[in-house]
Amino acid sequence: MSGASADGRTGAVWPLAHHRGALVPKEAATLPMGSLALRYGISVFEGVRLYHQDAGGVVPWLLDPHLDRLRNSCRIMGLDESCCASVPAIIDELVAAQGIDADGYVRIAVSAANVGGIDEAAESALTVTVAPAGRKRWLAHGEGIRLAVSSWQRPSDAVFPSTAKNISAYAGPRLALAEARQAGFDSCVLRTAEGLISEAPTATVVLVEDGRVVTPRLDDHVLPGVTRSWVLATARALGHDAIEDAVTEDRLRAADEVVLCGTGLEFGPVRTVADRALPGWPVCPVTTELVDAYFDQARGRTAPTRLDWALIARGAR
């Protein structure tokens, strides 16, 4: 993918965290063993990419919609959303204190730090870290993902709200990913109880069918992804139809192109689905167009696509 050549890797280690109001070594950014975060998984988070700009310096990519989603997750999980307002200044502080001038990954967590039982009100603690992060091998080396369709399911919103980016929501997808890798696949997608395609463990699945961009509906227990919203909006700006729709396994296997996308992954073009080669691989013109636009925007060469959080979080509770 031509837009992804610069990987930003430096071999640097950035040792500081902003934890509970102070800069500390990362190893000191801890929570009590009996905290609600560790006992009951009450901790929400966002991952934000930090991109080096062609003109110099680094910028957190699409920070505002990430913070809007973080606030929404806090509200759902009973955490204090007011700390989110300080995050931009904290990122600037971590960048300046560590002399960061390369691509990185910012993790922003709001956790229930107090010790107590399951009915205890949460006392929120904010933790922000930055780690060096370049391209995954899918973009760095032009590899294609071998994708499984997992027997594991994404729970319905009656079980756990899909719109909350809470750490407990990743326990099931982690098992699905481990099972897929043991079977020789690189990643997997989970289904709904009705058998529809939902999402990958840490990414949105996107199909290209005759030039049209398609992604599963939020109603199919999909996290309202920031990159997902960017892809839909940018595909339309590039002249493609882009829709949310019910996606079956047969439809996934028959697509011209399939790509996984998300903040940490960026883009992972798919080579095979359940051991069936995709007809368009390795020529993926729409995916390549989106990747080029993404890095042009992330590097500051062109203006970023405007995102509407109300559309990203449609149906949030």
TrEMBL record:
The keyword Nucleotide-binding does not apply. It holds the Pfam family Aminotran_4. One of its GO terms (molecular function) is transaminase activity. The keyword Transferase applies. It comes from Micromonospora matsumotoense. PANTHER family: AMINO-ACID AMINOTRANSFERASE, AMINODEOXYCHORISMATE LYASE. The lineage of its organism: Bacteria, Bacillati, Actinomycetota, Actinomycetes, Micromonosporales. It comes from the Bacteria. One of its GO terms (cellular component) is cytosol. GO terms for biological process: 4-aminobenzoate biosynthetic process. Belongs to the class-IV pyridoxal-phosphate-dependent aminotransferase family. This is Branched-chain amino acid aminotransferase. Keywords: Aminotransferase, Transferase. InterPro entries: Aminotrans_IV (IPR001544), Aminotransferase-like (IPR036038), BCAT-like_C (IPR043132), BCAT-like_N (IPR043131), Class-IV_PLP-Dep_Aminotrnsfr (IPR050571).
